[in-house]
## 1
Amino acid sequence: MGLNRRDFFRTAGVAGITLLALDTLGAEKEKDSDVEFRGILYDSTLCVGCQTCETICAETNGLPAPIGELKPGVLRKTDENHRTVVNCYKTTKGELFIKTQCMHCNEPACAAACLTQAMCKTKEGPVTWNGDKCMGCRYCMVSCPFDVPKFEYHSSNPKIQKCTMCYDKIIKGGIPACAENCPAEAIKFGTRRELITEARKRIVEGKDVYVDEIYGEHTAGGTGFLYLSSVPFNELGLNTKLQNESYPELSKGFLFSVPSVFVLLPPLLLGIYEATKKKKNDKTEENE
Amino acid sequence: MNNPAIPISKDKKEESTFKFILSELKPKGKFFTPFNIISIPVILLGVVLIVIRFINGIGAVTNLTQEVPWGLWIGFDVVTGVAFAGGAYVLTFMVYILNMHKYHSIVRVTVLNGFLAYVFYAGALLLDLGRPWNVVNPIIGNSFGTSSVLFLVAWHFLLYMIAQLIEFSPAVAEWLGAKRARKILSGMTIAAVIFGITLSTLHQSGLGALYLMAKDKIHPLWYSEFIPILFFVSSIFAGLSMVIFEGSISHKVFSKQISKKNHWAQKGIVIGLAKICAGAMFAYFFLQLLVFIHGKRWDLLNTPMGYWYLIEMVGFVLLPMMLFVYGYKKNSIFTVKFAAILTMLGIILNRLNVTVIGFRWDAAVSYIPSWMEIVVTLTVIFTEIWIFRWVINRMPVLSDSPEWVKDEK
């Protein structure tokens, strides 16, 4: 019995390396979980409809300048050239503005739909698109409850266009262009947790101003983009009929059933085959 | 070395096989048939449109919008086409797993039909992909979107095509006279069948599951969490109706190839299939009814979309189901064929209602396919029929296997 010198060193070495590896893995995990989802709080009561966010977004992303007149009754939509638009609605409290863009869901339907992981919920919070992976199937567009991803139909090398919350800037410690340049300070960037606290604070302090709800806190399983408003959100054209569970939840049941079907069905079929085969021997022989 | 006879004969054989294939590539039969006269111009036009699509983008030939990103090419070519190809897994189940020998004579043609349907209709998917050069990403590489239903469907399409090819391969071997290969390949049949049925169960329902996340976009009469099950059950009678329909045409067009024995057996086969169709349709109708009542959708019925829903359910599910029952009770082939056509129309209606008509039914600008999308769809269908005819005329699909197959047994 007993270990000789060489064995001892070997065992110690393996154990040491394993421990080290485990340690680094553990450390990395901890680091990842330290990163909180970033988000944007948009306070529609502060927005003056100057469209600076539209212009600066187009400039930052190398897209054409905003088009269309901003006035009530005209619904402007995001498209493959415009990642964000501001609209004006006639509401019970007069004409109000609202900005629309990607909602950066906590559990995005587009990312769950993507079969190549081209659509991706980054650990920092933004939902981004990777052209090297995307095969242009547009299932993300089918799945997104907010109709956000837009496709370049008139290109032989089409891209999916959507707001990325200026991911490139965020990972370098910057803040999204729209939040940085909003003259009315209606767009606030931060961690989602902080923003919800901030939104609650504003609602409590301005009881007469705000409706007591944050759009995006629970909608579609929670979104990175949060709205505050002085009127019910449907008056501002936001879809208030969306479910509060996340959208990937809808196809989870089906996906979970796949492995069990794959494990259970073949043996069942084989069993039936064996059971009916015996009869075959009694009958005349059959060709393939 | 010891036995030079073997390599020499092998070389000789390879050469002759090569020559044989070359000679078989040439067209056979009359060229100016009505089908050729219609299909050739359509195919040529379709090819031009496909070239335009790849130069100027998908928007150049389709009417797809940002709200409706999947149109005719997905809703009809892929979703409906695959439902019609369901006959292959149902028949292989009946013949190989349940050992219902009665249907043996139509298995090969059905598997061939299914295989070609998958190749062409899933192949049509490439036309609809904006970035088709990345199509291998979900198959090889490190881009596995395992949380996606489409990922599952893509893999299943690929694997099922391989399974069907194995199921069909003995016919190819018989055509080439490859005795050894035939023995090996036919030994793989049962494994391919079991694998194929499992894959079919999952991707027929998976095509429905694709639309589960589009909860707010599909008209509530067509959306429920049971879409996958409804798609699966309806694929059974969709596939069998296609078998009945295709069989009645094949028996006219390719009548020379079909032996007398199989020709007489056809009637019994059609009546048998009618019974199965009626049963599956009853289950389907009952499921639809349950979904309807469970979803408390009575108030939706008295709307234009509600009438449309009733037309589909009564005119294209309930009616053909009763016709199938009537057909097999009265032994009327005509009634069964008529019921099969009605059923197929009903399947087209149902799949399009989920994927195109009921999808964003409330959108300001509704999607109506362009004539170019329809031409490309026809191109795909016609090309498939061309290949189908080519194979039927050469391989023992409808005709009996060559004599040496029987000798071997």
## 2
Amino acid sequence: MISDERIKQLEDKARQLRLSVVEMIGVGPVGHLGGSCSCADIVTALYYYRMNFDPKDPRKPDRDRFLLSKGHAALVQYAALADLGFFPKEELRRVKVLGGMLQGHPDMNTPGIEANTGSLGQGLSIANGMALGLRLDGLTSKVFVVLGDGELAEGQVWEAAMASANFKLDNLLAFVDQNALQATGPIVERFDLNPIAPKWAAFGWHVIEIDGHNMREIVAAIDEADTVKGRPTVIIAKTVKGKGVSFAENNPAFHNGAMTAEQYEQARRELGAVEEGC
Amino acid sequence: MKKESLRLAYGQALVELGREDERIVVLEADLGKSTMSILFQEEYPDRYFEMGIAEANMAGTAAGLSLVGKIPFIHSFAVFASGRAYDQIRQSIALVGLNVKICGSSAGLSDFGDGATHQSIEDMALMRANPNMTVLVPVDAVETRKMVKAMVDWDGPVYIRINRNDLPVITDPDSDFEIGKLQVVRDGSDVAVFANGVMVSMALEAAEELAKDGISVKVINASTVKPLTDEEVLAHVEGCRGVVTAEEHSIIGGLGSAVASALRRKRDLPIEFVGVRDSFGTSALSYEELLNHYGLTADAIKDAVKVVLEG
């Protein structure tokens, strides 16, 4: 069993990634703060607890793969990749800059990014293809994919979900980051696609439901998924959009909203920024 | 001229190439008996994936397979392969230049009985518009075999548009096929006719008849629609007084558009398009009847040649 100390380290890493997201956005420019913060704990558990990869050799054939199907949360993945040494941290100051490497949505020109995602609904299909190919090559690598809950309205997700079960892809683990908000408001009010868990179960998936901000639950669910054979697993993680930044929590305005200077400082304080000397 | 099945040639070529190259995997959306991808399943069941009638997911899955080093070939009727899966082809495949091969079978009006929903008059336009995409249209079974080999050797996404019906064998098994190179199938000096697919044999027929009137027509098999450089097109119109394009496709966005775009600075060179005039398809009891209905005939090419000469 994972130690309390290790859990604390992972929680602190998630906090750092959120802080990094806030600092990437800064004051004024828009950026997907809400959706990046809601999946920060999941992303942390995958990169810092579960996945096998080598930042010095990002295309190593037997690595595990991570796909952010909800590509608008790219900032949190960039934070992790830079922290892990896939590319210099200085790049984080040039997100979306013309000619810069870090695009508005994940792009394969960035080391550590495995596919261009962001046109919602496409990540699980790509993950299926990777899982099929890896199995064909006899590799034990696993494919991890994070979907948003708003994204589940895309029909392609369910085409893909049928296919994962049909092909018995137990080398694939999907997360649904269920932050319950889409760009224009609460999912239950805008376009109610609940209940989510029975849908996946009916499509032939092993379903685990957790609190997506409880690191111990996330880690336990990832471990459980590794024991499931003959079918794919989905972890439905209840999360809070904007988690960790009080004014952004559960606030659809921060799906892609800009922060004022005051809000920016408040967000940094709440995420435990340590002021550097001048 | 002897007629042969292009789709059979396609399926056989895939089997042949699959023997040498284990990276080749085949995905099908329940039309394997039409596209002839089913032949691959018989030989290599482990590398054949029946994806169900779900073209979008098939295209996305192919993207994933290519990202782990496979060379996926995906299959459906052209109208579904290019249209139903358009966004997946754009976002997941073309945007990254992934090594996915897309087979649009029963293309153009060649699925004559099934009508407008199953006939593709815009697939070349859709695929051409994607950066990184290569678009090929085989003229016969012989060229199809060479083309499938070239597709495997080509690193990047390729769309191949295949006719459902048997077509006359025009090309020589010993000649080379190279992506991006146009092939003169009949030499001539007055008018250059750029045609592809089923329209090439009609262009040859038109040229034969026009020769009797003293008009010399060059027929070019434009089996690559993209990449098509200005130089490649310009080289074939040298000395000609007019240009005609002929395609089993809408005149919007296909071969005619590609050729006209390459000739944009040739102000003194009139050009006419033979193709479907901004209209969807319809059912017919025979292919020939349908081609006649849309003016995709040797006569239409003859008329177009005369128009550009009068130009």
